[in-house]
Write a structure and sequence with these properties.
Blueprint lengths: L6 E6 L24 H21 L3 E6 L16 E3 L4 E4 L5 H4 L4 H9 L6 E4 L12 H4 E4 L4 E5 L6 H11 L2 E5 L2 E4 L2 E4 L7 E3 L3 E4 L7 H13 L3 E4 L2 H5 L6 E4 L5 E6 H6 L2 H8 L3 E5 L2 H7 L8 E2 L6
Parallel strand pairs: 1-2, 4-5, 7-8, 12-13, 15-16
Antiparallel strand pairs: 1-17, 3-4, 6-7, 9-10, 11-12, 14-15
Helix pairs in contact: 1-10
Length: about 300
């Protein structure tokens, strides 16, 4: 079992904008006043292309699929919420909170991966839970410690506890369940995705433990990470707001480890935190300002890791 992969799926946007359906509980989204939708999309495409170029330059195998204009899927740039790939050839499909995000699940993407010699043995489909109003948004909601068979999940309107436990039973993960909050207009509100406040690397974990208001839960999460030998890098809520929790460790050429994040995430880190992280992986950052502002997601959300076997 590996924690990191060299293969990534990314979806190039064609109609990216702020998604009004996700803004109801993603408090990281902002309206960029005075920008035409076409301008927002063009900026997002520039950021996307530069990001892919940086990943490929260090030897990350990036499969880029172009989004389609029809159906209208403003958040398609974040594929990790609807799909996850596993080493045994399993693919999981997830139920999505926003109705217009459900259209992101496209079968031809799986066909394309098979054309690229990836092996898909089985599809585990949780999407029928949408009909009953239950959601679990992929590796946005689930943080998988693939080596130690643990799955971390901050419960929210987009991460249902029973569904999470069902996933853990199906994929043989021990569930680590907690609630994470952030302050919005003076009120503590649930964070919509676990991967906003936490990142799991092979030998380290980045986490904003201040987001876990319940002291017992906080201790339980940190104990689980320590038990598996992870060096814990603590970040602040202000850094979470700059997407410093939304990082992903990947492998480049010669199996070299890279920790991928946005420029705003990198700029929010202290020299001490950077030194801590650089012991584990080389940092690779790219400017994602438009994507972060309108989409309320960052580098990690844009990359769906492909762990599938190859022919």
């Amino acid at each position: 079992m590996k924690q990191t992969t060299n293969s990534i799926l990314m979806i190039r946007p064609v109609a990216f904008r702020m998604n009004e359906q996700t803004a109801v509980n993603n408090y990281y989204q902002k309206v960029l006043d005075g920008l035409l939708p076409a301008t927002v999309n063009a900026k997002a495409q520039q950021e996307f292309d530069a990001f892919v170029e940086k990943l490929r330059a260090v030897g990350v195998d990036v499969t880029v699929v172009d989004d389609t204009l029809n159906p209208d899927t403003p958040d398609s740039i974040f594929p990790n919420n609807w799909i996850s790939f596993h080493e045994n050839g399993d693919v999981a499909l997830y139920p999505m909170f926003a109705e217009n995000r459900r259209e992101e699940r496209r079968e031809e993407i799986l066909d394309m991966l098979e054309d690229n010699d990836f092996v898909i043995n089985n599809i585990v489909d949780y999407t029928s839970a949408e009909e009953d109003g239950f959601f679990l948004e992929g590796t946005g909601s689930l943080l998988l410690d693939r080596v130690n068979n643990k799955a971390y999940c901050a419960l929210s309107p987009r991460a249902d506890e029973e569904l999470f436990i069902e996933f853990c039973e199906d994929f043989d993960y021990a569930p680590v369940i907690f609630e994470a909050y952030h302050t919005v207009d003076g009120e503590r509100k649930l964070i919509y995705h676990t991967n906003v406040m936490m990142c799991l690397g092979e030998t380290f974990a980045v986490i904003c433990s201040d987001c876990i208001d319940d002291k017992k839960e906080r201790k339980m999460v940190l104990d689980n990470l320590k038990e598996n030998g992870k060096e814990i890098v603590l970040i602040t809520e202000a850094q979470v707001n700059n997407f410093a929790g939304n990082m992903l460790e990947v492998r480049g050429a010669n199996d070299k480890r890279y920790l991928v994040m946005s420029t705003s995430a990198y700029q929010s880190l202290t020299p001490k935190q950077i030194a801590q992280l650089e012991k584990h992986a080389e940092i690779l950052s790219s400017s994602l300002d438009t994507i972060e502002a309108c989409g309320g997601g960052s580098a990690r959300c844009m990359m769906a890791e492909i762990f599938l076997p190859k022919n």
